[in-house]
């Protein structure tokens, strides 16, 4: 007898509550339970995660502990439910079923460009070739997400252009699809206090911030003053205990920066 998705989500929500009481000590016990429940779903990924959480001296173990203890608790729980539960443990088996039903690939995530518009003019960016007037409507994006969820897809990634040019629409989509995990590549220059408050409210949107090294290398590509805006945005997100990632484009100008210990120390 197949366990209904709603019951699966409820049970895993209770697992999160248990985990949150003592995360790093309980994580291996939770993974034992997940491994029994999940069967062959994402088995290689789960094995890699098991190795990380059981090696307390590894930098990855320390990173997971840092993320868990320094992220806003409500945001963390939503990320757990939408990304780990919906996009993986619930979504993956449904995707497998749909792959068999339709005889084609069903992606784990959908990547889309809300707009070609951008407030920067970065050297070498392909988006500039398309101008700044191409947009998906709110209804188009809503329809893509709605159809995707029917196929078991709960992970959506925005690129551009600069997606945060459309941040009001993106936040509205987070509200409507509160069971989905959203990640957006962004130059971060449009992240402000109001947007951080929106992220705390919707809880299911994570920025992946473009950073091309230290100030000289970064601004040589993205424009003077952008490095300062980006680092200020990172500090603002951190002060609100909001998760974010870093996206770096490897070039002949910045390779020394982005392969240095100093750069990784700064990101960490």
What labels would you give this structure?
5-stranded parallel β-sheet; 5 strands; 2 domains; 268 residues; globular; 57% helix; TIM Barrel; alpha/beta
Description of the structure:
It is a single chain. By secondary structure, the chain is an alpha/beta fold. The chain has two domains: 5-70, no CATH class; 110-267, TIM Barrel. The chain contains twelve helices and five strands. Helix 7 links the parallel strand 2 (155-158) and strand 3 (181-186). Helix 1 (5-21) packs antiparallel against helix 2, helix 1 packs antiparallel against helix 5 (73-102) and helix 7 runs parallel beside helix 8. The radius of gyration is 20 Å and the shape is globular. The model has no long low-confidence stretch (mean pLDDT 89).
Quick description:
57% of the residues lie in helices and 8% in strands. It is of the alpha/beta class and 268 residues long.
Low-confidence stretches: none
What is the CATH third-level topology name of the largest domain?
TIM Barrel
| CATH C-level name of the largest domain | Alpha Beta
Number of strands: 5
CATH architectural arrangement of the largest domain? Alpha-Beta Barrel
What's the end-to-end separation, in Å?
45 Å
How much β-strand is present in the residues?
Answer: 5-15%
Mean pLDDT: 89
For this structure, what is the CATH homologous superfamily of the largest domain?
Aldolase class I
């Amino acid at each position: 007898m197949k366990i209904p998705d709603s019951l699966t989500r409820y049970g895993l929500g209770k697992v999160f509550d248990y985990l949150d009481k003592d995360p790093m000590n309980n994580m291996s016990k939770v993974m034992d339970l997940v491994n029994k429940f999940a069967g062959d779903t994402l088995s290689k990924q789960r094995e890699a995660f098991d190795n990380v959480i059981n090696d307390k001296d590894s930098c990855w173990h320390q990173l997971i502990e840092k993320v868990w203890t320094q992220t806003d608790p409500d945001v963390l729980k939503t990320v757990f439910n939408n990304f780990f539960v919906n996009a993986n443990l619930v979504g993956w088996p449904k995707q497998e079923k749909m792959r068999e039903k339709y005889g084609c690939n069903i992606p784990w995530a959908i990547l889309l460009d809300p707009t070609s518009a951008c407030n920067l003019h970065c050297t070498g960016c392909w988006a500039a070739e398309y101008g700044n007037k191409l947009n998906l409507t709110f209804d188009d994006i809503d329809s893509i997400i709605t159809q995707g969820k029917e196929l078991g897809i709960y992970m959506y990634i925005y690129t551009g252009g600069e997606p945060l040019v459309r941040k009001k629409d993106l936040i509205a989509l987070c509200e409507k699809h509160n069971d989905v995990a959203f990640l957006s590549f962004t130059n971060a220059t449009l992240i402000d206090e109001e947007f951080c408050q929106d992220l705390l409210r919707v809880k299911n949107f994570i920025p992946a911030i473009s950073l091309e090294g230290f100030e000289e290398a970064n601004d040589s590509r993205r424009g003077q003053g952008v490095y300062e805006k980006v680092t200020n945005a990172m500090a603002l997100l951190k002060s609100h205990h909001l998760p974010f990632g870093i996206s770096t484009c490897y070039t002949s100008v910045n390779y020394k920066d982005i392969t240095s210990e100093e750069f990784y120390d700064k990101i960490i």
